[in-house]
């Protein structure tokens, strides 16, 4: 049976996040030929709607309001519930991002439905859809099938491939007026840490450093390699605790969960808490002076050596490959 699927699109600093397109692809699979409706919230988002159609959305609904300029669970909750009431979907898909993880339990509670969170793969289509998600810090996977009510899932970024962009496709765009009132939280100012390069949670390549980098300056070679590969820099909890870098770079059970195509772990021992945040990466390369380091147990390729010798060598080799490509 075909289904109408409602998909939340996320925008950051005037641009759509890649997980928005991945959610559309997941929605298409769940819909089994039904309609996929993308929802875009903000204070001025009309200029972003065309891209959603090119990646497979059948319709796009925008909700614009000054109180939606910055995310708050109250404001987004009111807007999303209004859209859900209007559309009456059979399934809902959000990204398992900071925003999605915060708002999805609120919506599920209001609707009195279940929530399948952190989905990394979907088997089957329509009523036969089975959702696969990691449990026990990634040590095992469970398969979940929703038997009754609205299917509500959040998908982990970088796991479900988006459709190729098709400039010939377009989506019908409409707007919904929602009166956002009684906000308990008002965002008056946003002070951002200076960040450069690719978003860590959506990066296809991640170069992560641990205590082995020895200092804040020790991250410089990793950043250079990340720039060459078009990737992002991450860190272990140990490196963050040692003040080598900001906690925004932390990968692990109490940090970000990443699933890039390539994960290079430099000077990281491989504590179980760190593995929980990166063990599902497609290719893992470990660089460590200790041949008994736990990180080698999950690595596809291991290099026993000093990261300050190995990383610059890799950087130069990749530079040459790009020149000769």
**What's the helix-strand series?**
EEEHEHEHEHEEEEEEEHEHEHEEH
Strand order of the main beta sheet, please?
A: 7-11-6-1-4-5-12
Strand content: 15-25%
Structural class: alpha/beta
Highest-level CATH class of the largest domain: Alpha Beta
Helical amount = 25-40%
- Quantity of strands, as a count: 17
Give a description of the structure.
InterPro entries: DHS-like_NAD/FAD-binding_dom, ETF_a/b_N, ETF_a/FixB, ETF_alpha_N, ETF_asu_C, ETF_asu_C_CS, Rossmann-like_a/b/a_fold. GO terms for molecular function: electron transfer activity; flavin adenine dinucleotide binding. Belongs to the ETF alpha-subunit/FixB family. There is one protein chain. By secondary structure, this protein is of the alpha/beta class. It folds into 2 domains: 5-175, Rossmann fold (3-Layer(aba) Sandwich), CATH 3.40.50; 205-324, TPP-binding domain (Rossmann fold, 3-Layer(aba) Sandwich), CATH 3.40.50. It has helices at 18-31, 49-54, 73-87, 98-111, 220-229, 237-241, 272-278, 307-324, and strands spanning 5-9, 11-12, 15-16, 36-42, 59-64, 91-95, 116-119, 121-123, 130-135, 140-144, 151-155, 172-175, 205-209, 232-235, 262-266, 283-288, 301-304. The strands form 4 sheets. Strands 7-11-6-1-4-5-12 form a 7-stranded parallel β-sheet, sandwiched between helices. The longest helix has 18 residues, at 307-324. It is globular, with a radius of gyration of 21 Å.
Structure keywords:
single chain, 325 residues, alpha/beta, Rossmann fold, 2 domains, five-stranded parallel sheet, 17 strands, globular, ETF_alpha_N, DHS-like_NAD/FAD-binding_dom, electron transfer activity, FAD
